[in-house]
Amino acid sequence: MSTLIGIARMAAESPLLAAKRRVAYFDLQGRSLLNRCSGQRQYFEWTVNPYRGCEYGCQYCYARYTHEFMNLPVEEFATRIFAKNWDAAMWRRDLRQVQPGQTIAFGTATDCYQPAERRYGLMRHLLAGLAPHRGLRILITTKSDLVARDGDLLRELARSNTVRIVMTVTTMDAGLARRTEPYAPRPDLRMEAVAALASQGLATGVAASPVLPWLTDGEGSLDAVARAARAAGAATFHARPLFLRDSAWAVFLPWLEREFPALAPRYRSRYARGAHVDRLYGEWLAERVERVRTRHGLTARAEAPAPAPPLQLPLFS
Q: At how many degrees (to 10) do helices 187-198 and 219-232 cross?
């Protein structure tokens, strides 16, 4: 039997913090809370993912591969959640590396406001620790209405930094959302959180990503999300097509065959050449998104876009 090293060893040694009917939480020690963004497609300098694994169980989630770093099956990504050990001194040390004008992006691999946050409050600690800093660009991406809880901290940070919150809402159809994102908050609750933050003067946007071919790529579906975003006070709207790396495909395809069997052959054909859709589909979707965005007076992302996967995550994040 091979000896576990690095993050795999730390995961194996992580003590159980708590367990629910479907999910178990573990404590994860680490060398840093801040990750330097690497790879050719670098859109921001730093990322923070306070949790490993995500209990929302989105059927299409590309980040399932991160559990493989810990020698865990991708099927446990939504049920075996690791909360990084909070260390205020470590966070202060990490932030000394960040220069004014650089971007710290929260929630690039797993949702930073997933239910574990209600128990462990890591985002409250992380945001509070940013208070002394000036001139940073802070980006939060989430599917959770819990982000509205931290409006006070975000407002304070926005006095001296550029703060932007992007809410992911793939569809306003609550039934479809429950099938594709079974444990995530309802779309209307997410939009209520957008409204709450926008009403406090915070820059908010909505992302309808990933767009699922034949499920959420209809103009009516995208229009419904953009219309709700506009009504909630969001300033930006964007959407990118579904990306299916092997670890995501291994979960998504069996789900698709159960829930939408007629679409399974279409997906096999569309993704036969790899994880990305073909260029023509991407261009067609971009034109549709732009048409919807213009119709509702929304803009594209005001800052550098979130990274298109695959995101190169350090093994010891």
A: 40
Cβ atoms of residues 213 and 242 within 8 Å: yes
| DSSP string of 255-280, one letter each residue | HHHHH-GGGHHHHHHHTTTSSSPPHH
Give all strands (DSSP E) within the chain, no chain letters: 16-19, 24-28, 35-36, 46-48, 51-52, 80-84, 103-106, 137-142, 162-168, 203-207, 236-238
CA dihedral sign, ordered 290, 296, 299, 305: negative
C-alpha span between 86 and 151 (Å, rounded): 21
Helix (H) or strand (E) holding 229: helix 219-232
Confidence (pTM): 0.88
Give the list of residues 6+ apart from residue 170 with CB closer than 8 angstroms, or none: 177, 180, 181, 208, 209, 210, 211, 212, 216, 225
- pLDDT per residue as tens, the chain (317 positions): 345 334 334 433 444 444 456 889 988 888 899 999 876 556 789 999 999 899 999 999 988 877 666 677 778 888 989 899 999 999 999 999 999 999 999 998 899 999 999 999 999 999 999 999 999 999 999 999 999 999 999 999 999 999 999 999 999 999 999 999 999 999 999 999 999 999 999 999 999 999 999 999 999 999 999 999 999 999 999 999 999 988 889 899 999 999 999 999 999 999 988 999 999 999 999 999 999 999 999 999 754 444 334 333 333 23
Instruction: Please state the three-class secondary structure of 169-194 as a single string.
Output: CCCCCHHHHHHHCCCCCCHHHHHHHH
Encoded tokens for 198: 């926008």
**Any residues with CB less than 8 A from the CB of 277 and at least 6 apart, and which?**
213, 241, 242, 270, 271, 285
Contact 136, 130 (CB under 8 A): yes
Biggest CA pair distance of the chain: 59
**Backbone φ, ψ for residue 41 (5° rounding):** -95, 70
Rg (CA), the chain: 19
Strand partners for 81: 25
310: preceding bond cis by omega (within 30 degrees): yes
